[in-house]
Design a protein that fits this description.
The protein is of the alpha/beta class. It is built from 13 helices and 21 strands. α8 links the parallel β11 and β12. Bound molecules: ligand BES, manganese (II) ion and zinc ion. It is found in: Cytoplasm. Belongs to the peptidase M17 family. Its cofactor is Mn(2+).
Length: about 500
């Protein structure tokens, strides 16, 4: 069967220019940052990037004043400015004036601006003078739309933005812009996977799409089907997948970026439950459709390893991605069943809805057979993550030092992961009366941490590891904000890639 043609989001093209064009560009908008200057009441004032003449700045400022624009954070105001070679100017607020504007402020402002546009051919922007990468990421991600399943009746006629012209005089602008566009493209790939409905994205299809992307990037791919998984003892993946007519897979995507050299090896593992009904321990109907996002970790891992290959990162990255659909049926596993995880640990499955840890434990043991220096695993693992940290803050657990390093990188890229502990005593909650472990604790306490403690049992001794719980952050169920639309967010793709880049440089 051919891989179905999934178009996904077509990212705008990105080019760099050191000055505004001489000729007016058709269907063009200039996005300029404004701050709220002056006293309490604030007046929107264009941030002087050195890229616009003082006359044009004065023209925009007075148009904004006439409209009473205040320049508050993420406020957008559209004006015309006859002195500029664009159809209109979109002023986007950064809030109070300050010396250093954080990258995330620029990224969100760019995202809000892109969301306010539709059918624009060319977007020019001076946000780039504040932070070139953040401006490009914000524009591409804010303009993200997913229309694969809209017919002509409801499909948007135009992309938000077809082309981005980044105004900047920075000498390395081409390289910086290329990297930012590649990262944003990977986030969009992860979003496309999450937004593809479970009718169309099931384990075999997900595996084939991951394979197609990886092969196009020149990577090695291995896919284990259900027969191979059974034969090789992947009891967690087989157990979770056996209630579904659509059998599970284990996908391995390999980027060898430094052959023959003494480079680090990083294992990536991502939860790929293409739909989580809960299985026999079935979930309530309300909001069950959100469980289309239960492969958000796998989506980010696939997008990241492909990005690492495209960017030719000088390290080895091996993604191990378990994929299964958690369904109730007469062939499904039962509460009380015992399965054997890959590597031999036996588990009493007290709750079939705690399925993520079962497929991940197999994948973690397999990933550790490659002797990685680091292992980064991410998953929409527990509702308890949102109880503890809310919908936008991933929980980061694992080896103390590496956990803190990854959490700091996650903060730096604006995905805002936060370090959480794995208290030893929680292991007692996972005692089983019949097997080595139970898959859930009997207590309601610290559900996110208990899941992390379960996973820790399967990580090899000398491997520095982190577990990133993205149950809330992977999928935006409320309104659009910043550069995050409703639906798949692509989190934590940028954290994963930042960790790979950091390891490539610092070991
Ligand atoms: N996929 C869910 C976790 C989840 C919840 C993701 C909400 C996104 C949003 C996971 O498989 C699950 O069902 N976890 C259970 C664990 C419990 C049975 C110990 C949960 O959180 O209720
Ligand atoms: Mn579940
Ligand atoms: Zn799940």
């Amino acid at each position: 069967m051919a891989v179905s043609t999934a178009a996904g989001y077509q990212s705008p093209s990105v080019t760099v220019a050191s000055a505004l064009p001489e000729q007016r560009a058709a269907s063009s908008v200039l996005i300029v940052p404004v701050v709220s200057a002056g006293d309490d009441d604030g007046t929107a004032t264009v941030v002087d990037s050195g890229l616009l003449g003082s006359e044009s700045i004065a023209e925009i400022d007075s148009a904004l004043a006439a409209l009473g624009a205040k320049g508050g954070a993420e406020q957008v105001t559209r004006v015309v400015a006859a002195s500029l070679p664009v159809d209109s100017v979109l002023a986007v607020g950064l809030g109070k004036q300050r010396d250093e504007v954080p990258a995330e402020t620029v990224r969100r402002a760019a995202g809000v601006a892109a969301r306010a546009l539709s059918g624009v051919e060319a977007v020019l922007t001076t946000l780039t003078a504040l932070d070139l990468s953040a401006a490009i990421e914000g524009l591409i991600l804010g303009g993200y739309r997913f229309s694969d399943f809209r017919s002509a009746k409801t499909a948007p006629k135009d992309a938000a933005v077809a082309a981005i012209i980044a105004l900047t005089t920075a000498p390395d602008a081409d390289a910086v812009a290329g990297r930012a566009a590649a990262i944003a493209g990977a986030v969009a790939t992860a979003r496309d996977f999450v937004n593809t409905p479970p009718s169309h994205l099931y384990p075999d299809e997900f595996a084939r799409r991951a394979e197609a992307l990886s092969e196009a990037a020149g990577m090695e791919v291995e896919i284990l089907d259900e027969a191979a998984l059974t034969e090789q003892g992947f009891g967690g993946i087989v157990g979770v997948g056996k209630g579904s007519s659509r059998p599970p897979r284990l996908v391995r995507l390999i980027h060898r970026g430094a052959p023959g050299q003494d480079a680090k090896t990083v294992a990536l593992v991502g939860k790929g439950i293409t739909f989580d009904t809960g299985g026999i321990s079935i979930k309530p109907a309300a909001n069950m459709h959100h469980m289309t996002s239960d492969m958000g970790g796998a989506a980010a891992v696939v997008a990241t390893v492909v990005l690492a290959a495209r960017r030719q990162l000088p390290l080895n990255v091996i993604a191990t991605v378990p994929m299964a659909e958690n369904m109730p049926s007469s062939t499904a596993q039962r509460p009380g069943d015992v399965l054997t995880q890959y590597g031999g640990t036996t588990v009493e499955v007290l709750n079939t809805d705690a399925e993520g840890r079962l497929i991940l434990a197999d994948a973690i043991v397999r990933a550790c057979e490659d002797d990685p220096d680091y292992l980064i695993e991410t998953s929409t693992l527990t509702g308890a993550q949102t109880v503890a940290l809310g919908a936008r803050t991933p929980g980061v657990m694992g080896s103390d030092e590496f956990r803190d390093r990854v959490a700091a990188l996650s903060q730096a890229v604006g995905e805002n992961g936060w370090a959480m502990p794995l208290p030893d005593e929680l292991k007692d909650d996972l005692k089983s009366t019949v097997a080595d472990l139970a898959n859930v604790s009997g207590s309601r306490f610290a559900g996110m941490l208990v899941a992390g403690v379960y996973l820790r049992e399967f990580v090899a001794e000398n491997v520095q590891w982190v577990h990133i719980d993205i149950a809330g952050p992977a999928y935006n169920t409320s309104g659009p904000w910043g550069y995050s639309p409703k639906g798949g967010t692509g989190v934590p793709t940028r954290t994963l890639f930042a960790a790979l880049e950091d390891i490539a440089v610092n070991g």
